[in-house]
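Figure 2 data, in text form.
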Amino acid sequence: MECLGVSSGLDLQALSALLSTQQEEDEDSKNATACSHLGPGHIGPPPKKDKEVSTTAYTKTNSKDIWSEEEVVEGSQYDNLTDPRPKPEYEIMLKQNVGTQDLFLGLSGKDPSSMCCEAMLVKIKLPDTEATDVFLDIKEKFLDLRTPKYKLGLHLPHPIQSQEGRAQFFSDRRELEVTLLMKRPMDFVNMQ
């Protein structure tokens, strides 16, 4: 019977023998031999002798790869430290579709937090650049923009739908606006 960390009656008797205040010499000599091998580490349940080695923490395959596919960040193949092109100025904004029922009545349950945003707007300033010079590649969590004068490899804060989206270049401001729809797998929980 296990009760408050005491594993058996023998342990309880040994503990009471350690704590007894009787001054009789015969009992002291008996207890001295019986309890001489007991110490504070013997209080409580005995330790388990069969320790299982966990093999699920890390399993190395027989390949010579340094990293696995899951450890490599998406878009790292675009990082080139020897490229002298500067990074352009950019700004990331989150957008919501808000109607009058949201604004005045609050019927849809949306709030101003980023949890209720549906899209991400990335504004990139590209001075001295034409729209035909821009190369844009978008992955689920990475935006790659290259021009003859600028290079931007941007890790996005939220996963997006890479096939959905829109890019528009404003030649008067020399600015590229990229609107990306965010992947929102938990909408059925968040919007209830």
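Caption note: The chain has a mean pLDDT of 77.
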